[in-house]
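Most newcomers find our protein records easier to grasp once they have seen one. Read left to right, the backbone structure tokens trace the chain's path through space. Nothing more is needed to start thinking about how sequence determines fold. An example says more than a description, so a record of this kind follows:
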Amino acid sequence: MALFDRMLKDSETLFKNTVPLDYDYLPKLINYREQEQFQMAACIKPLFQKRNGRNLFIYGQPGIGKTVACRHVLEEMEEESEEIIPLYVNCWQKNTSFKILMEICELLNYKFTHNKKTDELFAVVKGIINKKSAVFVFDEVDKLEDIDFLYSILEEIYRKSIFLITNERDWLAELEDRIRSRLTPEILEFRPYSAAETDGILRERIQFAFYDRVWQEDAIAFAVNETTAVGDIRSGLFILKEAGTAAEDRASRTITVGDVEKAVAKLAAFAPKKSTELEDDSREILAIVKQHSGKKIGELFQLYQQAGGTAVYKTFQRRIAKLDSGGFITTEKIDGGKEGKTTLVSFRDVTKKLTDF
């Protein structure tokens, strides 16, 4: 009977609580981001004194705590004052002024939005917020298709702080002068987590999510190494959860290196969307990039027009940005000489796996 002692029974599990392994989970303490949170709080502080706050441009690569740290600051702010309204909007889907103002109305619990136009929605938002103060957080701002709402907020909301979050360092430089001159934000860069910090974060999540002593030490070390190599804590959370599931599938009471290897293989399989799922115009642009990889975006636009493409340059730029965020291509800002800044666009081989790095 000792043969079965190390096997999980039907009613047993390795997981104490899977919530800490979710991307959206907000720990009580955000370790290794104390200085960044302090700068955010300093920008908000004038609002507590009924003065206008300071604005902040936040950038850094994906999966290194920008959103989590910002949400944590907003949560603490709510505990301190009911006179400052926190408004967080992700611009991935809410990418137009109309959609953003609809979302803000929802956050403000204003329901009578039916048939209202953009300017009417802003009038509602302005009327509610100007009775108090507000912190606006716009995440993934590089996905925005228009920024008229930002100009309106800067001009007509009395007491506010505006935080803009993006992976794109150069996004601010490309902002219209009429907005950038009014925004005058402080700049906050989020550096990647070090190997030691990644180890600390994953061990904390293991403590919250799993029962004691179910993880073998070499399995933790392997998970940390893989996460550090990818540079994205979200990938590490995926690895922890999938490794635990793999161990349970074996009815094992411990999580081993082999379980982590299975999790990493699954992570590698999560390649970007297939190109066949793209819109027709985006597929045509991707084909041009593949054939002329490494060219400047302006040169690619000319090739697109020669091939019969009908989109204007701004729309072409947005298609390129979406292909980049989808993992089909890579873009690099360079000095274009007389042209000023320009962008090199290269085709990315999406068959490459994370384990290849």
About this structure: The chain has 13 helices and eight strands. The domain at 275-351 is CATH 1.10.10.10 (Arc Repressor Mutant, subunit A). The longest strand covers residues 84-90. The first helix runs from residue 34 to 48.
